[in-house]
Amino acid sequence: xxxxxRQAARRAGPDRRTEQVPSARWxxxxxxxxxxxxxxxxxxxxxxxxxxxxxxxxxxxxDLNAAGMPRNHRVVRHIAGTGISxxxxxxxxxxxxxxxxxxxxxxxxxxxxxxxxxxxxxxxxRLSERTFRCDLCAFSLDRDLNAARNLAALGEVTGAMSSPxxxxxxxxxxxxxx
Length: 178
Prior knowledge:
Elements: H1 2-10, H2 24-55, E1 60-62, H3 73-82, H4 84-98, E2 103-105, E3 131-133, E4 140-142, H5 143-158
Parallel strand pairs: 1-2
Antiparallel strand pairs: 3-4
Helix pairs in contact: 1-2, 2-4
Region (Disordered): 1-28
Pfam families: Cas12f1-like_TNB
Keywords: DNA-binding
């Protein structure tokens, strides 16, 4: 994109003051830029759709407080750029299409503070620690994987992991053709 923008800047584009007509090469470069923009937009839309379709069969989401996350501008920008609310919306309606239900883990559920082996809860783990180490049973695991295991266990307890009818579609909610 950067290369095409530099290329377009070197070409003779339209000028309202002098009534200059844009050159054919400028138009070609602009058309290539438009195609590249469209491809990038399609890729940004396609990724969440594929991910949400894969996650529909899990039915368990963790309700995160994005506004309460650290005020570091880099972290906030990355969180905002991921489109978490759009992903949650897609998972919700795709789960409804298949006849399942979305279960939300409470915002205050200590998924990353709880040991997935023995169930002990650490009171104040540091965010800089990337590996979870249990003080009681000496269990050690990546912090995110430990949280994922705890959320999966919570899903099994609440019945979130029961598989919905896979044959249902949007037009046929009960799986019977109309």
